[in-house]
Specification:
Layout: E1 12-16, H1 21-32, E2 36-41, H2 44-51, E3 57-61, H3 69-81, E4 86-89, H4 104-132, E5 135-139, H5 152-172, E6 178-184, H6 191-194, H7 199-211, H8 221-232, E7 243-246
Parallel strand pairs: 1-2, 1-4, 2-3, 4-5, 5-6, 6-7
Length: 253
C-alpha cells in the first residue's frame, strides 16, 4: 500500500470537564467528526454516560487539580496514541458569593480548577502539541467581560484565562501552536445545580439570563461545542489569540 492510499491519522483531542454540559457536548462533537477523544473528569459515572455508544470517546478519570495529574493525563495520551492535537481546557468550578461572604474554601477551588489547572495541563502538553501543530482551546465565560455581582471570583478566574489565551497565542505561535478561547453566555447546563441553587433560584436565574440575551433563547451546550470545533479546525488555521463570545449577543447588548 502506498502512502497516498493510507487512512488519515485520527486527531487526538483531550477535553477536561467532559462528564456533563459543554464538555460532554464537545467530546461528542469531536468524536462525530472522527477524532479520538480523551474525556477527562473526576467522576466515572458521568464520563461513562458521555462515552456511551461511541468507542471514539475514551474516559479518563482524573482531577486536573491533583498533584501530578496534568502530567498523568498527557502521559496517557502520549503512551496510548503517541500524539495530542487539541487540548480543550473546559473544567470549571463556580461558587457564587458577594464580597463580605467569601471564604478561602470557596475561593481556592475556583482558582485551582479554573486557572491553575489549565496552566499546568497546557504546559505539560506543550511537547505533544508542538509536534502536532496543535491547538489549545480555553473555555471562558461572557461574564468575564462585564460586571457580574455575586460571581466576581469566578469571573476573575475566567478573565485571567482570557489574558493567558492572548499571551500564549503570541508566545506559542513560533512553535506552531494556536491558542483560542470561547466565552459562553447563558447555556443550559447542570452548573446551577452544581452551585447548590434551589429550583426556585435556578428558575429566577434562567429568567434573568433570558431577558438579557438578545437572541431570545438560552444556549445549548452544542452551540458552544460547534464553535470549539470550528476554532480547532484546520479551516481556522490563521486564527489565534481570539476570544469568541457564544452568548446570543449578551455581551454587546
Amino acid at each position: 500500500m502506498n502512502s497516498s492510499s493510507a487512512a488519515p491519522v485520527s486527531r487526538i483531542v483531550a477535553v477536561t470537564g467532559a462528564g456533563t454540559g459543554i464538555g460532554r457536548a464537545t467530546a461528542r462533537a469531536f468524536a462525530a467528526e472522527g477524532a479520538t477523544v480523551l474525556a477527562v473528569g473526576r467522576r466515572p459515572g458521568p464520563l461513562g454516560e458521555t462515552a456511551a455508544g461511541d468507542d471514539r470517546i475514551v474516559p479518563l478519570v482524573a482531577d486536573v487539580t491533583g498533584p501530578g495529574e496534568p502530567e498523568r493525563i498527557v502521559r496517557f495520551a502520549r503512551d496510548t496514541y503517541g500524539r495530542l492535537d487539541v487540548l480543550v481546557n473546559n473544567a470549571a468550578v463556580v461558587h457564587s458569593g458577594a464580597l463580605g461572604t467569601l471564604s478561602a474554601e470557596r475561593i481556592e477551588p475556583q482558582i485551582a480548577t479554573n486557572l491553575v489547572a489549565p496552566v499546568l495541563l497546557s504546559q505539560a502538553a506543550l511537547p505533544l502539541l508542538e509536534a502536532a501543530g496543535g491547538v489549545i482551546v480555553n473555555v471562558s465565560t461572557s461574564i468575564g467581560q462585564r460586571a457580574w455581582p455575586g460571581s466576581s471570583v469566578y469571573a476573575a478566574t475566567k478573565t485571567a484565562l482570557e489574558l493567558l489565551t492572548r499571551s500564549w497565542a503570541v508566545e506559542l505561535a513560533p512553535r506552531g501552536i494556536r491558542v483560542v478561547a470561547v466565552a459562553p453566555g447563558a447555556i443550559v447546563t447542570p452548573i446551577g445545580e452544581h452551585q447548590g441553587l434551589t429550583p426556585q433560584q435556578l428558575t429566577a436565574l434562567r429568567a434573568w439570563q433570558l431577558a438579557h440575551t438578545p437572541l431570545g433563547r438560552l444556549g445549548r451546550p452544542e452551540d458552544v461545542a460547534h464553535s470549539i470545533i470550528h476554532l480547532a479546525s484546520r479551516d481556522a488555521s490563521f486564527v489565534t489569540g481570539v476570544i469568541l463570545p457564544v452568548d446570543g449577543g449578551a455581551v454587546v447588548a
